[in-house]
Every structure is written in C-alpha cells, then in structure tokens.
Amino acid sequence: MSPTPPARRLRLGMPKRVFSQVLLMQVAIAAGVAVLATGLFLAPLSQQLDDQAMRRALSIAETTAQEAQIAEELQTTPPTPDGPLQKAAERIRKATHARYVVIMDWRGVRWSHTDTSQIGGIVSTNPGEALAGNEVMAIDNGTLGRTARGKVPLYDTEHRIVGAVSVGIAYDSVRARLLSAIPGLLAYAGGALAVGALAAWLVSRRVQRQTRDLAFSDISALLAEREAMLHGIREGVVALDRAGRVRLLNDEAHRLLGIDEEAVGRSPDEALGEGRTADILAGRVTGTDLLTVRGQRVLVANRMPTDDGGAVATLRDRTELEQLGRELDSTRGLIDALRAQDHEHANRMHTLLGLLELEMYDDAVDFVGEVVGDHRATSEQVTEKIQDPLLAALLVGKATVAAERGVALWISDRTRLPDRLIDARGVVTVVGNLVDNALDAVAGTPHARVEVELRAEGRTAVLRVRDTGPGIPPEQRELIFTEGWSTKEPPAHRKRGIGLSMVRRLAERQGGSATVGEAHGGGAEFTVVLPEALDDPAPEPALSAPVDTPVKEESR
C-alpha cells in the first residue's frame, strides 16, 4: 500500500491584491479604534458612576444628620428595634432607595440598621474619621455586602459630636447602571465600525482603480523595472509635476542638460536658466521635435502632458547628426564646385586646343599662365592673411562654392589672423555658419557679394561677415539667434534654425558676443567677438589701405 499523503496545511496569510490588503487593514484599524474608544469610554464611566453613588450616599447622610430630633433622640432613647431612630432611619432609607441608613453613637454602637438584630452592636467598619468630624466617601465591604458609603458626624444643639450617620447604596445598582449603558455604547461603536468599514471599502476601491488591482509585489517589480528602464535608455527623460517643478531626471537627461540632482524640486528656469530649453520644458513653446541648443549639444525635445497635471519631456541628442548634416552639405557643395570646375576646365581645354590648332602659340602660353596664376593667387591671398590651416582651407572651399552660386567671396585687406587659435574647430564652426548664412541671403540677388574680415586684437579674435543681401529687420535681429527660427525651407536630412544659435552659444561660452547690424551700403553685418581666443598676442603687421581683394574671380 502506498503511504497516505500528508494532509495539506491550511495556510492563512495576507491576500495578495492591493484592494484586499488595504480593505483588511483599514477594517482592522477601524475595529481597533472602536474597541479602544469603547474601553476608554467605559473606564471613566465606571469611575463616574462610583463617584455619583458615593456622593449620593453622602448627601443622604448629611440630610439625615441635619434633623435636630435625630441627635436629641440619640441621647435620650435606648437602641431598640422599635425605637424612634430606627423608624426614622427606615423612613429615610425607603424614601431614598438606599441600601441602609445607620445611626451610631460616639462609641460606634448602632441605633438603627436594616437588620434589626444588628441594633445595639458595634459597626463593622471603622467610624473613627466620621466621629472625628470628617466626611467620608468610600466603596466598602460591610455586613450588607459591597456598597458605596457616605459618613458624616452627628452634632447636638451645642455643636458637639454625639455620633455619626452612615448611608450605603448597593453597589449592584451601580454595576447595573454601568451594564445598562454598555449595549447603547456598543451600538454606537458598531455604527462607527460600519461607517469606517464603508469608508475603507470606498478608499480600497479607489486604490484598486489607481493600482489596476495589482499586488504590492507587482507594483514593486514595476517600479524596479521603471528605474532600470529610465536610467538605461539613451534618451533624456524629464518629468515635471503640476506646479512645473522637476521631479525626475534620468542619467541621460543629466548628461544632455549638464545639471545634477539639485535640479529636482526646482522649476526649469531655476535649474537651466532662461532660454529656449527651459521654455520647451515649461511648456511655453509647444510643438513636436522642437530643436534647442544646450551648451555644444543640439537637442530634439518633445513634451507630453500627464493625467495628474504634470508633463514628461524627452530629449534626443542630435549633435552628431547635425554635424553629419553639415558635413553632407559641405560635401555636396564641394561636389557641385568640382562639377563646375570640371565643366570650366573642359571649356578652357577646348579654348587651349583651338589656340594650338590656329597656331597661336604665344596666346596659348599667355592663356595657360593666366589660368594657373588665378588659382595660385587665390590660395596665396587666403593663406597670407589667415595662417590657421583649417580656417584657410574652409575659406578656399567656400570661395569655390560661392563662385558656383554666382557670389563673389572677398577677404578684406584688414584681415590678419595668426596661427595662434586655441579652439580652431570652434572658430571654423562660427565662420562656416556665418558664411553659409550670408551665401543663402545673397543667392539670386544682382551683384551678390560676401566679405569676410578676421582680425586679431591682442588675444581677442574679431570675426565679421558682411553681405549685400536684403538685411535683417531691427525687430528680428535678436530673434534670428533663437534655436529653431529660420526663414528658409529646411533640407530633407535636417532642420534649420541651428547655425546662428550655435554661433552665439559658442561665443558666449568663451565670454564673447554675437551680434548683427546693418552693413555699409545695405545688407547684414554679423560680428562675433571671442576674447582669449589666441594663445599669445602677436604684433599686428602694418595695415595697407583698406582695399578689398576678391578671393576668386572665375570666368564662365
């Protein structure tokens, strides 16, 4: 025979659902409060009933002792069952519903008692305090059981103590009053418990809806997963409460925004400072995929309101994508420039071939020298005035692109920039954005021209780019430096409204400035001042007459 399997144990424990746990705990709390309140009420009630019984007994004793014939008859009559004091005591006892009324002399001998056989005997409790002139209240055990007693001295007409009066009220009547109060009290406690249970049920139902009837363990697991997800994703998350204060930042948001945990509990303006990023997080700027610049980073922000009145903002880093986009633009420009040069080179070769076929050899030599000299002069002019190789290469390339677009790119004769730049890449970014912006502004206009002036004043670099375009209206001269603002259609691979904002941010990061005004003769003039941009100040060479030299003149 197979062994009988052991009986399954009945395991009692807390239910798993939040609704059941909250309801059970709240009902238990309500029941405990009801029991505690009942006990706290009954304890003083019992003491109060005892005190009332003793005072009632004392009052009856005082009233009895104030009758003049009681003291007189105590002195003139013997203690007998048929005596006047026994009759008077019984009359008072029946009228007041007392348990007993005992009249005694100064020796403690009874002159009256409920049990007539006790008359003439000594009282069972000590009458010393009453015979000494003191009033006594107590709960005592005597010949008639447990009673609430009151004792007072008995005076004659000359105010001498001749005895005492002791009155007792049956303690059973006091206990009966207490017991009679308990059902009503329990009814009130039961009603309070029912109201508490109903309130607990309503609260539990609300908690059930808000927690979607999950167990506490499930909620704890969800919170742990949420923390792991928030701090593991490569996208910044910023949560704000209904008052607009930051209440949560994940690790990526700390990195992208450059702030620490002190930002929690503060508004975006307090944590980030005034600017477009704070405006987007605060909801003052609305839309999807909003561009903003934070430090050297280009961010794409989206903000979504939550049911509790707050909001959650997500941040994506588009710095590398923006840089790739600009490199793509530059590559496309260079490809177009190379295509144009190839076309122009073919035309020149055809011209040279025609000169040779016509046996115009001297003209052919002059033509070749002129073409080669133009190219040599362009590179020499740039490198003579701009000694930084990255910046010089940028301007040579921009000159080719400008020529293809029918724009004359000039380097001012006031340009003098030694190879002392601390952050050459930053200056390249500033000049490249300003030149691109100027080329876009003058494209399609007659006699289009862009002039670049780069000067060193001690350790400060001053960068100016002028164009002959339509210019910038005064009311928009600050707006154009705002992230996301642009009057041009964006290309397919990226958005506009970033270049000039990055220029100002780079300048301000070095303690400088970026401004725009009206150029002499019309158009716009952008000026960027970069303090401490050069390592060591170099003496500026003597400036020649301010005659502008074209970078590149190409025949079509």
TrEMBL record:
EC number: 2.7.13.3
Molecular function terms, GO-annotated: kinase activity
Keywords: ATP-binding, Cell membrane, Kinase, Membrane, Nucleotide-binding, Phosphoprotein, Transferase, Transmembrane, Transmembrane helix, Two-component regulatory system
Region (Disordered): 532-556
Localization terms from the record: Cell membrane
SMART domains: HATPase_c (SM00387), PAS (SM00091)
Membrane-crossing segments per the record: 20-45, 185-203
Official protein name in the record: histidine kinase
